[in-house]
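The aim of this short unit is practical: by the end, you should be able to scan a pair of folded records and say something sensible about each. We start with the first protein, listed as its amino acid sequence and then its C-alpha cells.
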Amino acid sequence: MKKIKVIIVDDERSSREELKIALKEYEDFVLTGEAENADEAKDLIETTMPDLIFLDIQMPEKSGFDLLESLDNVPAVLFITAYNQYAVQAFEVNALDYLMKPIRKERFAKAIEKIRNTITPKYSLDNVAKDRKIFIKDGEKRFFVRIDEIYRIESLENYTRLYFEGKKALQRRSLRQWEEILDESIFFRINRTEIVNIKYIQEVNRAVSGRLEVKLKTGELLEVSNRQAVKFKNLNSI
C-alpha cells in the first residue's frame, strides 16, 4: 500500500485533534507532523517533505496563502476553512479540495478518495523534481504553478516577472534568488535580466547585433549576452 505523508497546519488545537482522529481511519495516510502557525509549518515542510498539507487558511499573523508563497516547493494542498469566501479562493488556486469546519465524516471520506486518485507519493528525488510546484500570488490573483511550466523569468528592479501558461505574474524575488532554487539543467540565465526554460527554446540564431538570439516556442525573441554565450553553446540540450 502506498503511503501518503501528511502534515496538519492549523492554529486551533481542537481542529488539529479533529483531523488526527479522522485520519486514523485511513492506514495509507501517515501523519508526519503538525504546526500551529506558518513559520513552524515552513520548517516542518522543508524538513519532512510531505506529499500533502491539511492547511488552515485563516491564521494569526500569516495566513495559509502566505505560507504557500514562502515555499520553494509546494506539496499538494487541501484547505481547511471556517469561511465560505476562502473556499472559493481555494478553488481559484487549484487546490485539491477544501473542507469546511466543523469537518463532516462523509465529506472527509470524499476528500480522501480524491486525494488518493490525484497524489503520487514522492518516493524518489525524480518524482519530487517532476511534480515540483510553487505558489504565486500577484495582487488578488493566486496560482499553483509547476516549475517546469515557467518558460521565462524577467528582472524588474526589486521584482521579477514570471511567464507561464499564457499568464504572467510579479514576484518579490530577485533573479539571483531564482537561480538558487531552479534546476540549472533546465533554466539558464541568458543575460543580466532574463532566465529562460531551455525546453521552450525553439530556435537559436545570430541576431543583427552579432549576438546569439533565442526564439521561444511562445514566439518571443531574446538575446544571449556575450558573457553567457559560451556557456549557452555548451548546453547539451541546445
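Turning to the second protein, read its sequence before its C-alpha cells, just as you did above.
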Amino acid sequence: MPYPDRFYPVVDSIKWVERLTKLGVGTIQLRAKELDDGAALQIVSDALAVTKGTPTKLVVNDYWRAAIVAGAEHLHLGQEDLADADLAEIRKAKLTLGISTHDDAELATALAAKPDYIALGPIFFTTLKSMRFEPQGIPKITEWKQRIGAIPLVAIGGIKFEHAAEIFAAGADSIAVVSDVTQNADPDARVRQWLGLEAEAA
C-alpha cells in the first residue's frame, strides 16, 4: 500500500486508535495536544502497543522525541514543531516524516527537510481549531501537486467523504480526515465508506 494510505484519519486518543485499528484502517495519525514529555511518551507507547502486529501504521504528531524513544516508525510535524525538531536525530531513527504546509514559504521550508509526504490545508473551512489561514480550496491541491512532483500530497481540513472524488481528481494522493469520522453519528459506517473507496482504487 502507499504511504500514507489514501484514507488517513487523525485522532486524539487511544480509544480512537483502537477503534480504527479494529476496523482495518491502514494509516492513523495520533494528534494529542498539550502533553508533557512523560504523558507524550505514555500515549505514544500505548498507541504503538495497539497497532503492533496489525497492518495499521501509526503516525505520531509533534512528539518526535517520544516517537524515537517509543520506537515509532512514522512522524508528522507542523511548521512550529519542525522549527524545534532535530531532523538529524529523526532521520537517524529512520522515522518517515510528513510536514504540514499552508503557504509558499512553508512549502519551501518543508521541501528543504526532504519529507516523505507534504500535507496541504485547510482545504475547506474547519471548526476544529482556529486557523491562521483561509481555506485553500481544491485548485490549490492541483498547484501544490504540480510543485512537489513525486512526493505524496495529503489534503486536510474540513473534508468529508462526499468531497473525496473531487479532491483525488485534483491531485491529492491521500485525504486526512478528522471530524468526518470523530464527529460522525455512525463513525464505523463512515470509516467503512472511506475504506471502500480505498479498496476501489487499489
